[in-house]
Amino acid sequence: MDLSAKKEKMKIWQLRFMSYKTSDDIFDLVISGEKTIETRPATKNFKVGDRLVLTSVSSGRKIEKEITYVHKYASPERMLEKEDYEKIFPGIGSKKDLLEVYKTAKKKWGEKYKFELENYGIVAIGFK
Questions:
Q1: 115 Rama class: left (phi>0) / alpha (psi -120 to 50) / beta
Q2: What value, to the nearest 5°, has the Cα angle with vertex 59 and ends 53 and 48?
Q3: Which three-class secondary structure string do you get for 48-66?
Q4: What phi-psi label fits residue 91: left (phi over 0), alpha (psi between -120 and 50 degrees) or beta?
Q5: Tell me, what's the pLDDT at 6?
Q6: CA distances for 16 relative to 46, 51, 81, 125, angstroms
Q7: Which stretches of the chain drop beneath a pLDDT of 50?
Q8: From the CB of residue 48, how many other CB atoms can be counted at a distance below 10 Å?
Q9: How far is CA 60 from CA 8, 57, 63, 91, 102, in A?
Q10: How far apart are CA 78 and CA 44, in angstroms?
Q11: What domains lie within the chain, and their CATH numbers?
Q12: Residue 49 has what pLDDT?
């Protein structure tokens, strides 16, 4: 396959994300290279080589990253049996603390997020 054919298949995904405690705290972890895994309900067909444009909801800052792997799991609990929680959310403290974040997100982000997570599972998207 020539390079032009490969580029045609690559997709650019626009992903927005919230801050946790202070403005751009999560975005800054991506910039520093500490956060190298993004998670989402498994409703999209992310592929290795696709590009992520990560945008902070707080500031509108953006950064582009390349997807290095995609792992799908039935639940956040199953995901954390395999994935490094410190690469998903550096500084969160423990797997238990990260599971609390997902539990809170189900309430905070509404029924659609909860439905997707519970019915489609979760995807861990590695990036560089």
A1: alpha
A2: 15
A3: CCCEEEEEECCCCCEEEEE
A4: left
A5: 53
A6: 15, 14, 26, 14
A7: 1-2, 4
A8: 12
A9: 28, 6, 10, 23, 23
A10: 19
A11: 3-127 (2.30.130.30)
A12: 97
What angle in degrees, to the nearest 10, is found between the helix axes of 110-120 and 95-108? 130
Count other C-beta atoms under 10 Å from residue 8's C-beta.
8
Exposure string (b/e) for 20-37, b if CB count within 10 Å is 16 or more? eeeebebbbbbeeeebbb
Number of Cβ within a 10 Å radius of residue 56: 20
In terms of DSSP bridges, do strands 12-17 and 37-41 run parallel, antiparallel, or are they unpaired? unpaired
The amino acid present at 76, given as its one-letter code, is: P
pTM for this predicted structure: 0.89
Contact assessment for residue 51 and residue 10, using Cβ atoms and an 8 Å cutoff = yes
At residue 55, the pLDDT reads 96
The sign of the dihedral angle between the CA atoms of 25, 72, 48, 112 is negative
